[in-house]
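dumping this here so i dont lose it
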């Protein structure tokens, strides 16, 4: 499935603004057996590495979370040779100590989506891939170091619960998630992170906290989250996210051997 014309070492799924950090950006179309990805892939050079940027919602944010073709996105990046995936996202907080403006480098997720195509293996080959540790521990450590060095408050672990979207939670749902002990809420990490694992891609999530979900755990009683508020806080912090991603790209050693690179080693069902 390797693309013969173009290659990339590191992938970034996020907003279209990420590739504005680089010069000589090349836009390419990638076809996949699963249909079209969210957009073109944008290739750039950074510190001797080729980086592939893919706007998960499309360059003009026209694709809602539940309509993203996650399989096509991951397949497109894998076909370019991507072995490391940086997956930044806007997210809500479910716990008082995780404040808007903080970054969380999640180590676990809980899937509360439904009906999303979430595997490449629909037969006749059958794989049961362990997702006990869905994010790469080595990339997580690098990300935590970079974020800390840039003076940003970072939580070095956390569970992100992924809801279906496009609606936000009810107060009762939010309260349920908080009482379960989960820290972060988002709409896109699943199945993106899991599909990357099925392709032996090491993935790291960086969640930028934009709000308290429904305002239930805030210091003061605040109004439920709105998209306008999420977007406002995200724009305020966009430059920090870009700076972190840029530095992380520089620090990822291309010879790094991640447990994620071996996710399929013992997962195939032998007839």
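and the seq i came up w/
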């Amino acid at each position: 499935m390797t693309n013969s014309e173009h290659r990339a070492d590191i992938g970034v799924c996020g907003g279209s603004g990420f590739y504005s950090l680089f010069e000589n950006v090349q836009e390419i179309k990638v076809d996949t057996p699963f249909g079209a990805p969210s957009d073109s892939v944008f290739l750039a050079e950074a510190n001797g590495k080729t980086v592939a940027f893919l706007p998960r919602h499309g360059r003009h944010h026209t694709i809602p979370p539940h309509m993203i073709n996650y399989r096509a996105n991951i397949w497109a990046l894998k076909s370019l040779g991507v072995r490391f995936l940086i997956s930044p996202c806007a997210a809500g907080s479910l716990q008082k100590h995780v404040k808007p403006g903080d970054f969380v480098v999640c180590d676990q997720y809980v899937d509360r989506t439904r009906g999303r195509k979430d595997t490449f293996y629909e037969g006749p080959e059958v794989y049961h891939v362990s997702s006990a540790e869905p994010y790469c521990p080595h990339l997580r450590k690098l990300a935590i170091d970079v974020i800390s060095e840039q003076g940003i408050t970072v939580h070095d672990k956390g569970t992100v619960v992924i809801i279906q979207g496009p609606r936000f939670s009810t107060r009762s749902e939010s309260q349920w998630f908080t009482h379960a002990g989960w820290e972060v809420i988002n709409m896109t990490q699943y199945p993106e992170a899991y599909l990357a694992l099925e392709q032996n891609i090491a993935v790291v999530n960086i969640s930028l906290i934009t709000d308290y979900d429904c305002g239930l755990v805030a210091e003061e009683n605040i109004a439920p989250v709105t998209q306008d508020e999420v977007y406002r806080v995200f724009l305020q912090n966009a430059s920090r996210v870009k700076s972190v991603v840029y530095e992380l790209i520089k620090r990822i050693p291309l010879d790094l051997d991640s447990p994620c690179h071996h996710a399929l080693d013992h997962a195939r069902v032998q007839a």
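The chain has five helices and eleven strands.
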